[in-house]
Design a protein that fits this description.
By secondary structure, the chain is an alpha+beta fold. The protein is built from five helices and 13 strands. The chain is flat. About 15% of the residues have low confidence.
Length: about 280
């Protein structure tokens, strides 16, 4: 058995090691502020030393949906469909409940630009979200809760719009559906994730590894719950949907932060999503 003096030395040693590691992380973050520091689990560590978890990133993404368009972009050269409106505005808003049928709180955006590309965007909003709203209001066999919100930003010359719908139909699990649009205001072209990475000189390998880490960690967590008897959404980490060339759901946020979104409710009855922030 260790005596009191030995125990004291052990405690002092542990404290010294802890302080050295903390100081090392602080110095690294100070001199390399743009380089993401990660712990052994792949979580990002901020310059202040706080761990930024996947849950934090997911929440920061969800907090963006305020049904507003934020921009200081000079749109005087843009041909709008309605000159009295902003580039993105709330086309239709409603909050109503019909007993025994549905409860809806919806804010439908429209991109206010005369362009074939933008027309395709708006048509997609119609087919994914508006048609569903019309179906619910026409009457369904199960009570439905439908909430729809959006967010929109311009960074440099890139317009980013994201729409999020939360749908609960009867006894089915809740779904969260996310659709994004990215449009180059100067070239009248749809913007790909690779375009963003190349424009910002971001290494694709770094981004691909970050995606793999986040998804793998989420998959591990889900498998643990499944082993404990819970029913949860199960990811296929080898699915090609996680390859950069196949990713279409992403936006640039209010400060230029890049969010890559895997909303599994787009095709399944689940509210699970993985959001990677670059």
């Amino acid at each position: 058995m260790m005596n009191t003096k030995t125990i004291r030395y052990v405690i002092y040693t542990v404290i010294i090691i802890f302080c050295v590691v903390a100081i090392g992380l602080g110095v690294y973050a100070q001199f390399f502020p743009n380089e993401p520091v990660q712990d052994v689990y792949g979580n990002n560590i901020s310059a202040g030393g706080n761990i930024v978890t996947s849950q934090d990133v997911n929440q920061s993404f969800l907090d963006l949906f305020t049904n507003e368009f934020y921009s200081s972009y000079d749109d005087s050269t843009i041909t709008k469909t309605d000159d009295t409106k902003e580039l993105v505005y709330t086309f239709y808003s409603d909050n109503q409940t019909v007993s025994g049928q549905y409860s809806m709180n919806i804010n439908i955006p429209v991109i206010n630009i005369q362009s074939d590309v933008v027309t395709e965007f708006n048509n997609l909003t119609q087919s994914i979200f508006v048609d569903k709203i019309n179906s619910v209001m026409a009457g369904t066999d199960v009570y439905t809760i439908y909430n729809l919100d959006y967010t929109a930003y311009v960074n440099n010359n890139i317009l980013s719009v994201a729409i999020k719908a939360t749908i609960k139909e009867g006894d089915n699990p809740q779904r969260v559906i996310v659709q994004t649009y990215n449009y180059n205001l100067e070239t009248d072209e749809s913007v790909t994730l690779r375009d963003i990475l190349e424009d910002r000189d971001i290494d694709e390998t770094v981004v691909q590894n970050r995606i793999r880490t986040v998804v793998q960690n989420a998959s591990n967590d889900a498998n643990e719950l499944i082993d404990s008897g819970y029913t949860v959404y199960q990811r296929d980490v080898n699915d090609e949907m996680y390859q950069i060339d196949n990713i279409s759901n992403f936006i640039e946020g209010p400060n230029g932060e890049l969010y890559i979104i895997f909303a599994y409710g787009n095709n399944n009855y689940t509210s699970e999503m993985d959001v990677i922030q670059i």
